[in-house]
């Protein structure tokens, strides 16, 4: 497994690599959504390269940071422009500052001025610590569901990250759309959040907000919002159960289950439907190793690229997005001339975007039905 994609949280040390998580493991609650039930989550280990950076972060910043479930970043960030949505006091922005290096740039966006002021007080400390000739970070006060009101320009960013933030916000669709707009085609959205296995009844929302999970998203809604925004289907990197610590809340929510998960997806370029190249299947070979992923690139929980091994990626739009992404030099892409299409159509209920700026979640809101079509190309026998 790639060590560059194996970070763990510096604040959550337990190792649950052996756990097999299933939201249905206790009893079948009749929920048709259970995208996590087949996941054997791995709490990926922090590579030594990332641990060494975390050790260099100012202790006051670490002390004030949110107890995030994961602190993980995608590889190959050197020279990239990265945006951290909901950066808080900036721990991840400073870690990313080191990862992008002298020629990269990191923007942290948060709506909380006090946290941003605290983060700004530590900008020069980290530039000096990392040996940068000048700071490469900038903190922007703004709403992550209104990125169009910030200085961040469309098609200008290589990578967007976000850590334990989207579940706070009601208008998740606007956050995902905003992230997609600022990314360049082939750009990567890599983010951790809390997901729920069924809509949260309205009467529990206030109770759950104290647990930071009142706004947890259903993963089908994530797929819907991401693909509608112009991303590839999100790929699940890793997941683990989110343990509700308050007994009263646990009793109240009953069979409702939560998971913390990291997804990654890539911005597809806008093309006219009739000329879409997304359905051309490719065989990919991981040819040039990424730093700290010399043997294997841990792309997601079901897809790992072994160096030199030829692989047919089940989702042709992922192969296409990778061919535009910063990973493109690491792969060779061979189109499969003779392939057949397998189409899967799923019906999901969509949660409408919120009409206001309320911080509560969207459970209990009336839902409309939408279909998600997944096309997979496989080589003909
Ligand atoms: C749980 S903290 C996570 C902070 C940081 N990502 C970390 O992992 O340490 C959530 C952050 O989201 C920010 N936030 C919540 N709603 C926001 C919004 N609409 N726009 C920008 N930031 C927001 C909060 O101010 C807070 O800093």
Automatic annotation (TrEMBL):
It holds the Pfam family Methyltransf_31. It catalyses: arsenic triglutathione + 3 [thioredoxin]-dithiol + 3 S-adenosyl-L-methionine = trimethylarsine + 3 [thioredoxin]-disulfide + 3 glutathione + 3 S-adenosyl-L-homocysteine + 3 H(+); arsenic triglutathione + 2 [thioredoxin]-dithiol + 2 S-adenosyl-L-methionine + H2O = dimethylarsinous acid + 2 [thioredoxin]-disulfide + 3 glutathione + 2 S-adenosyl-L-homocysteine + 2 H(+); arsenic triglutathione + [thioredoxin]-dithiol + S-adenosyl-L-methionine + 2 H2O = methylarsonous acid + [thioredoxin]-disulfide + 3 glutathione + S-adenosyl-L-homocysteine + H(+). Residues 369-381 have a biased composition (Low complexity). Residues 78-206 form the Methyltransferase domain. InterPro entries: Arsenite_MeTrfase-like, Methyltranfer_dom, SAM-dependent_MTases_sf. Residues 1-38, 354-381 are annotated as: Disordered. One of its GO terms (molecular function) is arsenite methyltransferase activity. SUPFAM superfamilies: S-adenosyl-L-methionine-dependent methyltransferases (SSF53335). Keywords: S-adenosyl-L-methionine, Transferase. Its EC number is 2.1.1.137. Residues 13-32 have a biased composition (Acidic residues). Belongs to the methyltransferase superfamily. Arsenite methyltransferase family. PANTHER family: ARSENITE METHYLTRANSFERASE. This is Arsenite methyltransferase. It comes from Adineta ricciae (Rotifer).
């Amino acid at each position: 497994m790639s060590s560059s994609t194996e970070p763990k949280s510096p604040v959550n040390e337990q190792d649950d690599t052996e756990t097999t998580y299933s939201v249905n493991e206790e009893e079948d609650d009749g929920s048709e959504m259970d995208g996590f039930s087949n996941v054997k989550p791995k709490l990926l280990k922090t590579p030594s390269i990332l641990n060494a950076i975390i050790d260099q972060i100012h202790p006051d910043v670490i002390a004030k940071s949110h107890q995030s479930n994961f602190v993980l970043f995608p590889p190959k960030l050197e020279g990239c422009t990265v945006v951290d949505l909901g950066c808080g006091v900036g721990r991840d922005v400073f870690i990313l500052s080191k990862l992008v290096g002298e020629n990269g740039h990191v923007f942290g966006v948060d709506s909380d001025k006090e946290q941003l002021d605290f983060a700004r007080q530590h900008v020069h400390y980290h530039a000096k610590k990392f040996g940068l000739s000048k700071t490469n970070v900038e903190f922007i006060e703004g709403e992550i569901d209104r990125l169009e009101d910030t200085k961040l320009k469309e098609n200008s960013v290589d990578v967007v990250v976000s850590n334990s933030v989207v579940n706070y916000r009601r208008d998740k669709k606007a956050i995902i759309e905003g992230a997609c707009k600022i990314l360049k085609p082939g750009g990567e959205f890599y983010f951790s959040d809390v997901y729920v296995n069924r809509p949260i009844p309205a009467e529990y929302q206030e109770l759950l907000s104290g647990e930071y999970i009142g706004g947890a998203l259903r993963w089908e809604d994530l797929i819907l919002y991401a693909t509608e925004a112009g991303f590839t289907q999100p790929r699940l990197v890793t997941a683990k159960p989110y343990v509700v610590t308050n007994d009263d809340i646990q009793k109240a929510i009953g069979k409702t289950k939560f998971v913390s998960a990291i997804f990654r997806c890539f911005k597809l370029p806008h093309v006219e439907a009739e000329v879409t190249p997304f359905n051309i299947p490719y065989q990919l070979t991981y040819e040039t190793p990424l730093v700290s992923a010399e043997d294997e690139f841990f792309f997601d929980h079901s897809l790992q690229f072994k160096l030199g091994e030829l692989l047919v990626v089940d989702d042709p739009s992922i192969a296409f997005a990778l061919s535009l992404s910063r990973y493109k030099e690491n792969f060779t892409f061979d189109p499969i001339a003779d392939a057949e299409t397998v189409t899967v159509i799923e019906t999901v209920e969509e949660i409408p975007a919120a009409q206001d700026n309320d911080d509560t979640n969207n459970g209990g809101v009336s839902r409309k039905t939408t279909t998600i079509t997944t096309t997979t190309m496989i080589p003909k026998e």
